[in-house]
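Thread title: Can someone regenerate the structure for this chain?

I was given the following input by a collaborator and told the matching structure tokens would be attached. They weren't. Posting the sequence so someone can regenerate them.
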Amino acid sequence: MGVPLTWLLRRPELRLKVLAGRDGLDREVDWAHSIELADPVPWLGGGELVLTTGLRLPASADARKDYIRHLAKVQVAAVGFGVGLSYARVPDALVEAAEEAGLPLLEVPLPTPFVAVTKAVMERLAEQQYEGVVQASRIQPRMTRAALHGGAQAVVRELAVSTRASIFFLDHDGTPRASHPPGASTPGPGVLARLGPADQAAAAVSTGSDGVVAVQQVRVGPRVHGRLILVTDRSLTSVDHLLLGHAASLIALEAEKPLRLRDEQSRVNGMFLRMLLDGSVPAAAAVDHLTEAGFPVREGVRVLALRGGNPRRALELAGEELARRGLPLFGAVHKGCAVILLPGGHTETARAVTDGALARLRAGTWAGLSSVQDPENGPTALREAMNAASAAQARGCPDLVSFESLAGQTLVTSPETRAVLESLAATRLGPLAAYDVRHGTELLASLRAFLEHNGQWEAASAALGVHRHTLRSRVERIQNLLGTHLDSAHVRAELLLALSVWQEPGRRD
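Best answer:
Regenerated them for you:
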């Protein structure tokens, strides 16, 4: 916001006189700058009232015209020429060039010092800033009341009316959720691209053929709800930016209401899932609770385990995908893995949740899915999902690995054979697990990778992300601890079966 030239011309004590460029008197002055250089352009940024007495003015008429043309090119607001010192009157060449360029040229009489003009501009700018603060302080409560009674659309309308601009609220996917005035055209993809990605650009301004476009990210903490966009055909003021930011905060808080409720419900659901997975919830109570929560259990349940990366972030992404499908999140962190309960008959949901999470998480995340189980068989489903995720990690598999695809899964479905295999696992794998805990090694993971890759050193070491010599050293240590050799096919088969039922001991997260 600058000082209108017309306001300066109405100040009687300044006694300014317009000599040229009357059609440009609607311009605004951002600053008054007294400068006597022959070429002041490098020190100007546009919008200034350039004050000069012509002390270094070129002698030739053509050079004087170039002086004015260069000032017009950098878009100064006007030129004020002081007479009575270097020149008795403003040179004709300056007047002609200013008229041709449409640049306002003002005569500053000798009794009017340049400092008086500069002071008038500075004082008016300060007044306007104060007026802007007062204006914003009156508008902000109206916007807050609008948010309480009408949500995002009411906030957008109040902002549009207050700024005399078109306002749009786009969600994270770029879908318009609110706008004003009615029928206003949403900025095109090209304009939005110049403003930067929705999840990265906190605030930006773009000026082009579409006018001035300002964007403010709508977010609370790490959660981005979208972008609030202001489109106008004028320069933005500090008040515009202040109101845009305030509106974005109000819309973000409005968007957070259902999410906070959903987060709290997910926290309670997570507590229930932990009890379900450790077998402490009776079958009837499990079915009743899941049904009341809107979770389908008619076809049983599955457990999805996501190993690696940030488990809390994985749960957040899974919750978003489930919410899009109208399903509640039952998720928890178990031994560093994100564990999610899924409907047994919704195979496509398991795939969608997995693909969505893996696509947005960093590399090094592996997914395992249990077989379909009754709700009371939570511990079994958890063990299967964790084993499948471990197998995915051992194989270096970037895709979802189901428990049904693992060798030996048919045997572990029988209680009798499972008991035998669990005893075998405790005997064979227990020493390796204990060694890993004491020494911080990864012998169990190395054994699984070695066996899953049929003893191929290169493939197994690549899956683990270690050098093949490191893997050879680990396998040698495993053989010493177990007192056996992995060259034997029978030994390998026995250990694979033990791994199919192995559940690492330790605390529950």
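Residues 30 and 419 are 84 Å apart (CA to CA).
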